Amino acid sequence: MKAVIYESNAGSARRYAEMLASKLGVPAYSYKEAVKAIPRDEEAIFIGWIFANKIQGLPRAQKRWNLICAGAVGMNPPGEIYNKILHENNPTDIPIFYLRGALDYHKLKWLQRKLLQTICTDLEKQNKPGTQEMINILKNGCDYVSEENLSAIVAFALSNG
Questions:
Q1: Does 1 score more than 80 pLDDT?
Q2: Which pLDDT score, from 0 to 100, does residue 129 have?
Q3: Which of 22, 55, 60, 133 has the largest CB neighbor count within 10 A?
């Protein structure tokens, strides 16, 4: 495997990519950098941020490189239900590993901030069980990025790369 390639919006995917690259002894490149640095069809790992349950950048990275797996960075709590949603919305033959990221409103564009604030308001109005954690995250931000979250993708990469 030649590299870890990432598409990041507010920095969580970049942080995970850099941590993973360090653990695997390969460089980490943004998608834009990778286009110049990594030849087509080289083996790599892709890490992208999630928007509307889609891993941003994954389809175009798959067309360019031989990806062995992908990391999907988002704010939802990890679990089988969300893994199923990710796989349904990102049709691919490669394994997808969910990595819980961070939310820092200072790193988001105005429209993204407004969208999340609207979602938070809607969740509060609905008052459904199980939404309080997401409401707190949307109100206060969060940072779940950690090396421990990479254990499954590291194990996979070491046994398949």
A1: no
A2: 87
A3: 55
Strands (E), 1-141: 3-7, 28-30, 43-51, 54-55, 66-74, 96-100, 102-103
Backbone conformation region of residue 81, classed left if phi is above 0, alpha if psi is from -120 to 50, else beta: alpha
DSSP single-letter state for residue 105: G
For 71-109, how does the pLDDT look when each residue is reduced to its tens digit (9 = 90+)? 999 988 888 988 999 999 999 999 999 999 999 988 989
Instruction: Give the chain's count of helices (H) and strands (E).
Output: 7, 8
What span, in angstroms and rounded, lies between the C-alpha atoms of 88 and 27? Answer: 30
pLDDT band at 49 (very low <50, low <70, confident <90, very high): very high
Pair 8, 30: CB distance under 8 Å: yes
Cα gap 68→136, rounded to integer Å: 35
Specify the 3-state DSSP secondary structure of 96: strand
What average pLDDT does this structure show over 10-16?
97
Please tell me the distance from the alpha carbon of residue 88 to that of residue 53, in angstroms, as a whole number.
9
Q: What is the DSSP letter of 83?
A: H
